[in-house]
Here is the input.
Amino acid sequence: MLQLFKFKGGVKPATNKVQSVTLPIAVAPLPTRLAVPLHQSIGGMPRPIVEVGDKVLKGQKIGEADGWISAAVHAPTSGTVIEIGLYPAAHPSGLTAATVVIEPDGQDRWIDRQPVDYATLEPEAVRELLREAGVVGLGGAVFPTHGKLTASKTVPMEEMVVNGAECEPYITCDDLLMRERAEEVVRGAGIFRDLLRPKKVLIGIEDNKPEAAAAMRAAITALGDAFREFEVVVVPTRYPAGGAKQLIRVLTGKEVPASKRSTDLGVQCFNVATAYTAWRAIAHGEPVISRLVTVTGNVDQPRNYEVLIGTPMDELLRLGQPKADTDGIIMGGPMMGFLVPDQAAPVVKATNCLIAHSPELFPPKPPEMPCIRCGECARACPHELQPFEMYWFSRAKNFGKTQEYAIFDCIECGCCSYVCPSRIPLVQYFRFAKSEIWTREREKEAAEGAKNRFEFKQLREEREKAEKAEKLAKAAAAQAAKKAAEALAAASAPAETAAPASALVAAPAPDATSTPDAVKKATIEAAMERARAQRAAVQPKNIDHLPPAVEKEIAEIDARHTQVFGTADTAPADGEKNN
Amino acid sequence: MELITSPYLLKEASVQRVMLKVLLALLPGIAAYVWLFGPAILVHLVLATLTALAAEALMLKVRGRPLGMFLTDLSAVVTAWLIALTFPPLAPWWLTITATLFAIVIAKQLYGGLGQNPFNPAMIAYAISIVSFPALMSQWPGTDGHFSSQLQVIFGLVPRLDSMTSATPLDALKTALMLAGDSHSTTVAGIQANSSAFGMIAGRGWEWIAIAYLLGGLWLIQQRVITWHMPTAFIAGLTIIAAPLWLWHPDTYASPLFHLLSGGAMLGAFFIVTDPVSGATTPRGKLIFAAGIGLMAYLIRVFGGYPDGVAFAVLLFNICVPLIDMYTQPPVFGLKDK
Here is the structure.
């Protein structure tokens, strides 16, 4: 039996999972239109490769991954592209996002699917396949999965954690997936295992999902010897046990700080649904065009649906028959999700759950009281932060101090807000502080960029001025040399003419002497100066007025460089969020 | 629409609930108090509570804060009860009222109200009272007073007679030891045996009240209103200095148990030191803070000029809280070995 570790903090809200597990997974009907946002993963913004009016097939790529940390997007069904533009997004900001809108033709015709035997492929080719299939972390963080499938060069991979904990209340899509499709989940995890080569594969499932744990165990046994390093580990139910870092801690005892990648500690974590989609992509040639979504909350028929990406949320929620007093939709769980500003926003790869919101189910927050420093939040924090200190500093806009108190280690799990007797929306303050810090960093960078550009311009202008002056001087010197040569020739002539000639030479070009040696030296120097000026002028000009395509290519190369060599590493630490 | 972000679930918790539990936890101590010393304490509890609420309401109105929300949070009532319980039950009515006014108006509201006060308001009230009226603050009733005569004393209807009051056990011990001076004829044991103020271990009656406070305090820990750190560290801090001195010279220094069950020690350990607003917050900080108070309380009691030292020790360490918190920040998840 594996020794389990504990993480500090955490809370135990009512799980409310039983409502949505009574019925098996159902396939949601084809909606009237599908709005597929191009940006559905962390990283680069995929470029649309279809045009309005194009006929597309189910599974056809419509967005090309942009850069290594990015993932392709695909048409969820066959039909016609009727719009490419800005569309309400599944985002708390209520902003719009670049979206491809498809009108289904009802035939649901697939592309020519190409199953592959990944054992015959190079690891690099498998990663590329996953990127092309749009496989991203389906636990909520939507980090491109292929970007997590490279082991550290220096630290051996010890454990691979498969996250089936699903700790957020209400959500049951991973539970149902494991119950009904355990074998494919295990096989998908097998792909990851073959790429990372860990010593152990630990599948963590909270103890409130015994059916899922049993199904996964049965699948591992049935698959036999090839999966002998797989182990299902039942972990105590305590939110946020399904946070990647918490589950890694519980199963391996390792603590991954915000500043490190989990592979640096010889461990990596994937969500069960991610493993499932990876298997479908490799063994069936099906890109990620649908996902399981729990429809629950204030509805009469809570249930899990297999939903096409791009399905409007309100249309999906109607399947659950929301009750009359429903006044909103929460995407995700009640601890980390958000109220969608526009209910017509589409289901995306990050949508694991829709909760019909009602004032009765989620009573409005009582008014905020002053902090009494009781420290409940610090005791509940799974990252062992001091939320009330960060709160004081966030309020005071003393952002430097919030960083000293490790605000970027905060995973926004909501435990602190949940327990606060003063009902302070702590997480909201932290989100505010984080975004302020990011904004300031960006402004600082922009200011520095402008300064650099200005300095470069000044430098160039000075150089051009110098060049001009030099050219004039050179012309004058050449003139003088010519005159000197003439004078020299004249010197062989009668002596009385020589004196005025040499006087003539000395007057216009005092820097050039009248000897042939000096003339030669001046000529050589002028030539060298010219060459140097040309070199200097040519180099920066090279990247000045380029066609956009070339510029883009350069940017891509730079991006790859930073990714490979890890400078300016802006990609968030790997890891799926919750569940 | 007001921006509402996750989490959408909230635990059943409120400041009012926290304060209510503190009040409930004080009830066993109050019951023991009434049983042993008569109901005079109830008069002070009522006076202090009414004064605190009135002062709070007035100040909230002046400061333009929502009355309903803050008046019902019960934090003023907790302050009021702690004042009443640390004052002698025969203190004149105006002293309780003045002290409570000072605590609420100056020590709490002028600093910004709930959650903003750097000092424990009840201890401020105690400190200014004992400095201003040392005699009145040292008159404690014997265990055999009648309620009607106690009432007359409180409201100044009869002159204060020495026969009605006696010094606290701590005071009695200190005075007796001081009077004895360097003569070794007087011992702690001798004083305790000869005075009616003393019971089995500490003051007569006082020891039982202390035990009742202890029980209430344990319930608070069980209810997760307070953590074990502060009471434990306070008791440890007091013991760590009381024990060696007692072992070295038991004739001059009372036992640690005597000190723990006397004066404000138990009330302090579970109800005063643990005030979250004015106390340290980190686990290690709490230990340092409370142990420091225990130690300092003993020093003031035994070597200082006042009969009890808990109030001054608390205030002294309230000042140190920002420093203690700053230097005792616990390591963050994943960053422990650095």
User: Anything to note?
Assistant: Chain A touches chain B through 61 residues (CB under 8 Å). The longest helix of chain A spans residues 426-491. The longest strand of chain A covers residues 79-88.
